[in-house]
Target: Aspartate aminotransferase
Amino acid sequence: MEGADRRLSTLARHLQTSAAGHENATITCSPTSSSSSSGDHSIFANILPAPEDPILDPRGAVFVTVAYNKDPSPVKLNLGVGAYRTEEGKPLVLNVVRRAEQLLVNDRSRVKEYLPIVGFADFNKLSAKLILGADSSPAIKGNLVTTVQCLSGTGSLRVGAEFLAKHYYQRTIYIPNPTWGNHTKIFNLAGLAVKTYRYYDPLTRGLNIQGLLEDLGSAPSGAILLLHACAHNPTGVDPTLEQWEQIRRLIRSKSLLPFFDSAYQGFASGSLDGDAQSVRMFVGDGGECFIAQSYAKNMGLYGERVGALSIVCRTADVASRVESQLKLVIRPMYSSPPIHGASIVSAILKDRNLYNEWTLELKAMADRIITMRKQLFDALCARGTPGDWSHIIKQIGMFTFTGLSTKQVMFMTKEYHIYLTSDGRISMAGLSSRTVPHLADAIHAAVTTIV
Ligand code: PGU
Model:
């Protein structure tokens, strides 16, 4: 009850603050309010419109979807959402995914029964191996890991957060500044208090390791810490392995609880193992940690909503009790997860040929993004665009955090029909050799016109 009360009051506080800022504003409606006699009066007449999601909302945000969809310009370019596009600017379904789907369709023994609450057992085992390392992880060998299939990365984060709010003594989570916009909302609504730690240095457009270590150093013992496993969104800035080791030592010495968000495994370096190194470092020391995995980007399964939450515990007995409690979080939320996406992932992960084909296709996507970085950098150098643009090739993963101001972004949208989030984040995966010159022209004009 105590936990439930605390969550309710956190939620109430959240709603108050939100309502004050008109975000998610909810006003209790009553049928007896002012114009109830009119025939077309709705009991929801007092509800205020909520702001649209800056990245995903289908009704569209000012800078991204709706404006992009409405724009008749033939040169318009959507670099808002972090979704992979081909050189031709088209969404990509991986060949290996098509092959796996074909196998599934042809298999007449497959049925559409409910999955268990924790999802598809094969999928869970294979997902843990993918992030923790097939043979090497003592955590897997010792049955110290519990993995549950969730609704992509977002669902995995939310289930983990709900579990923590219910069962963990510390209810504060520290997230990097800046971070993916949905993190704060996910953790707040689960009942966790959200604080930030310094991460990005706008001057160097790189990692503020000093600030990061200071902020973690002053976090209360036991606090939860959200870490992007690789390809940090939106900055594209990751710690080096040495810096990860410094961070790990500090986290363990202060008994902080690491919660990894792994939404881009394979997208940073093109190597699945390479991009899992940060997580494996933490699991290797025998301490506890949470990992939210998403297959949206690395298998291109965005709309299938397939992901996993793994909790690494100190003993097999604890892991099994944790799993029993995870079921109590999931059952009233969505009962059990969907079957199709997890079947595709399992088919690919368990078959050596399909797995190898996947790694090649993944590498090709990562390489195309790296090529786009190089081309954009060269194009800006060729134009003599004022400023140091080397961060475009230094940053990694799907995004470049350009350092462009909101005004400059608005200018690019208005004058060049280029759509990106107002913080200056560009999804490099949305670029192609054909569109790089247009973007470079726009950036050049923006930084020379608006200083
Ligand atoms: N974590 C991070 C760091 C992310 O960037 C994203 C997606 C997720 C989790 C959640 O992804 P799932 O689709 O739930 O697996 N961020 C993208 C996609 C659009 C969005 O905002 O959801 C982005 O463009 O930032």
Summary: Residues 85 and 91 are 5 Å apart (CA to CA). The chain has two domains: 61-92+365-449, 114-350. The longest strand covers residues 145-150. Residues 55-56, 81-82, 152-154, 180, 182, 228, 233, 261, 263, 294, 296, 302, 307 surround PGU (CB under 6 Å).
